Amino acid sequence: MKMPHHILVIISGKHKEHEALQRAIKFAEYRDIHIHLLSTNYEPALDLNEVLPSEQRDQLKEQHLADRTFYLQSIAKEVKSQDIECSVIVKWSPHLHEVIEDVVKTLQPDLVIKRVSAEPLSINPFALPTDRHLIRHCQAPLLLVKHSSWTNDPILAAVDVLTTDADHIALNSAVIASAKLFSHIQLSPLHVVNAYTTYAVSAAMDFPTLDVKQLNSNTENYHRDKLNQLLEQNQLVPKPSQLHVESGLPDLAIAKVVGELKPQLVVMGSVGRKGISAALMGNTAESVLARLNCEVLCLKP
Length: 301
Fold this sequence. Notes:
ten-stranded mixed β-sheet, single chain, 11 helices, alpha/beta, about 20% strand, elongated
């Protein structure tokens, strides 16, 4: 991800402070930017109430939208006072994620910034909260933030060194480049994590001649070598202490490293799995967001 120029900021309701906007403004220190403020408004009663005439319902909708537009314009005025271009988009819709996806297709922003939703993850695998849906479907880099300001806590880039197809190789490079960018902005140390699968001890029972301990050690070394090659190809030479080659499923391995490292941001790719498998299995990025108390930058192939 390059230094963003067009940034789409999601404004959810009226608050004293908008964390996503404060993060967007930070980029103005490095280049000219244009911030697009996006908000939705919706009152179910105006769509479901058959008592009011349709003309009156339309008038009430316009009033709601006018009120939200006025609010966003007041925010935009403050942003413009800092010599930053700012525009306003307000839509009537009960589905914020759909509006964001449509606006992304139209504007093609360099970055979407949104505050992490307060809504809990549903136990129903077919009901996707807004953030999880965006991780899966948003076609622009998506930064989900929790706080209004940057810190100098570490940046963690999560990569897959065994990927072989061109799209995912490019995604690894994009993750590293984006992590380098945010590390520069925050003056933070950059760490890299890669997960690998180990062989269970029970395998030795099925294959008595198999040295499982040695095999797992060789597997770790192989992944470590591949990780060093990947970083060298992307002009990144971190200290050995900044490299994390962890055994286990990616979401668990990343969660383990995050628990030890306490980074502010995890940068990772989201493959956007679709259909029933997506609903039942989810994506690594979604699982990370559910497990971690940190911010996430999701990139697409």
